[in-house]
User: Which sequence fits this backbone?
């Protein structure tokens, strides 16, 4: 789970130009990355490619933080 | 809104309505103009792509639909909606059966009516970041531009049911696995891949190519008629207006999931 979380934070920071050191697991990812629904789809695609899983976007509806997202990915890995 | 050039037999069509080529009244008129032009020009191959950064096409213009239904009774709205549906079906059916090969180049969002437009094309080239979805059920309707019959025809009922009933989006890689897309290319490489494919398609005799297409691709006329009737029935119910109201006022991070 920690490994997924760290890779997720690395990937999100690189993709959206955020300061990796400033991103915390409990951060609201939409606010931290300043992304809207369309950019969130880009992140979803990146995550599917990175982790080799398929993540139905309805599972992300209630996800707000990076650690919640990492938990969703972990369940699919 | 829609522009095209024709060079060496290739009609390169670009959709360019910001933010993401939403299909409303103006886009429908532009698509009708495209069909007239293509019918006159008879290119060897048509490439259909988007210049909008967000993607190929986000589908029907829901904000315009919402505005159009404001203060209009269901009785008065029904014939307007039916007219729109009949017109868009004529466009989609013509593109589907065009007497030359057509190639869609898809990046970013390809949702709802946008996916229905892509499904009229013979070949679909997906850039890596493309995503495909039919989110219409969130509005209490089914896709109304012929998408489900064409998806069933091209990829089978199983994937059509998945996309229709869940409303989820799938990646370009998954789209290729299911047959929804034919080629997967890196971001920004879609046009090059389409031009290369067009060159290959043009090696064959145009008449033979048209015959082969007509043999390999049939219009699912009965299912399209069923879809039109079902869409208009579902759209006449109050649920769609309520869902549209919710959509235009939605500030959620993923409003298309509704």
Assistant:
């Amino acid at each position: 789970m920690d490994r997924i979380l760290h890779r997720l934070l690395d990937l999100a920071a690189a993709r959206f130009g955020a300061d990796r050191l400033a991103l915390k697991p409990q951060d609201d990812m939409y606010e931290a990355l300043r992304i809207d629904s369309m950019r969130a789809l880009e992140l979803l695609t990146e995550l599917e490619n990175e982790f080799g899983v398929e993540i139905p976007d309805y599972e992300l509806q209630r996800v707000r933080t990076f650690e919640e997202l990492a938990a969703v990915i972990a369940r699919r890995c | 809104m829609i522009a095209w050039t024709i060079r060496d037999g290739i009609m390169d069509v670009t959709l360019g309505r910001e933010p993401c080529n939403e299909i409303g009244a103006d886009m429908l008129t532009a698509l009708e103009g495209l069909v007239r032009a293509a019918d006159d020009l008879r290119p060897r191959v048509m490439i259909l792509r988007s210049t909008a950064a967000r993607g190929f096409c986000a589908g029907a213009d829901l904000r315009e639909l919402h505005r159009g239904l404001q203060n209009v009774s269901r009785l008065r709205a029904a014939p307007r909606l039916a007219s729109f549906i009949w017109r868009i079906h004529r466009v989609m059916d013509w593109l589907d059966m065009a007497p030359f090969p057509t190639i869609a180049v898809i990046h970013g969002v390809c949702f709802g009516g946008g996916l229905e437009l892509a499904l009229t094309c013979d070949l679909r080239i997906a850039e890596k970041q493309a995503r495909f979805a039919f989110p219409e059920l969130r509005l209490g309707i089914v896709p109304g531009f012929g998408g489900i019959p064409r998806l069933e025809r091209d990829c089978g009922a199983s994937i059509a049911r998945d996309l229709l009933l869940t409303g989820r989006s799938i990646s370009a890689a998954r789209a290729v696995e299911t047959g929804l897309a034919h080629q997967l290319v890196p971001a920004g490489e879609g046009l090059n891949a389409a031009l290369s494919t067009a060159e290959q398609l043009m090696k064959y005799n145009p008449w033979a190519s048209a015959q082969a297409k007509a043999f390999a691709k049939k219009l699912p006329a009965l299912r399209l008629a069923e879809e039109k009737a079902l869409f208009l029935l579902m759209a006449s119910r109050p649920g769609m207006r309520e869902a549209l109201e919710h959509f235009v006022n939605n500030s959620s991070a993923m409003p298309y999931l509704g």
Summary: Chain A has a mean pLDDT of 91. Chain A has one domain: 2-76.
